Amino acid sequence: MLGLKLATDPRWVNLASLSIEEILTDHAFCEQKATTNCISLIQLYPEKTFLVDKLIPIVNEEWSHFKMVLDELKKRNLKLGKQRQDKYVVALQNFIKKGGSPAERFLDRLLLAALIEARSCERFRLLSLDISDDSLKHFYHKLMISEATHYRLFIDIAEQYFEKEVVKSRWTEWLDEETRILSTLELRGDRIH
Ligand SMILES: [Fe+2]
Ligand SMILES: [Fe+2]
């Protein structure tokens, strides 16, 4: 799905079902970080009109997702906990070409965002099918569709500024790196990633 090379271990949904408060808290902060990342991209690349125009509505959408997750917590009398370190995202960030050209770093930032959207989409799909809380199934189905759209959007932005072949070739490297990182991380039900 979405080009990802490693499917999530199906036991992850069972673990997540046992820790609804923790998974919703982690998810809420994923949405907050998605919002912040779109704002950062606009700040870093204000001259790139296509990117700015495409990301402005996504800032609103991701922030509305944050609010939606908070509402799901409230409905269940659960609390938004503290944000925890996202080892998955931190490990992925290390793959951005540090000594690369500004153009290479720009492409990497877009592909990193696309990858996190793709993996979130894959995990939301699993939750939409199998989470123990039935009313969350519909919620995760809606978000799965939304994150799939965002994955496609970041790829579209990349293809606006780079040759398709360049995007494809670097995307394959990102997919390989994500597979490597994911296979080293502990499977935890209190984390989206
Ligand atoms: Fe989102
Ligand atoms: Fe998203």
Shape: globular
Q: Beta-sheet strand percentage?
A: under 5%
Instruction: Specify the biggest β-sheet.
Output: none
Radius of gyration: 16 Å
Listed once per kind, the bound small molecules are:
fe (ii) ion
The N- to C-terminal Cα distance equals 16 Å
Stated plainly, the CATH topology is called: Ferritin
Number of helices: 7
Structural class: mainly alpha
Q: Low-confidence stretches at least 5 residues in length (pLDDT < 50)? A: none
Averaged pLDDT: 95
Number of domains: 1
Helix content range: over 70%
How many beta-strand segments?
0
Task: List the defining traits of the structure above.
mainly alpha, 75% helix, Ferritin, binds fe (ii) ion, 193 residues, 7 helices
Structural summary, described in words:
It is a single chain. This protein has one domain: Ferritin, core subunit, four-helix bundle (Ferritin, Up-down Bundle), CATH 1.20.1260. About 75% of the residues lie in helices and about 0% in strands. It contains seven helices and no strands. The longest helix is centred in the middle third of the chain and has 29 residues, at about 100-130. The radius of gyration is 16 Å and the shape is globular. The structure holds fe (ii) ion (2 copies).
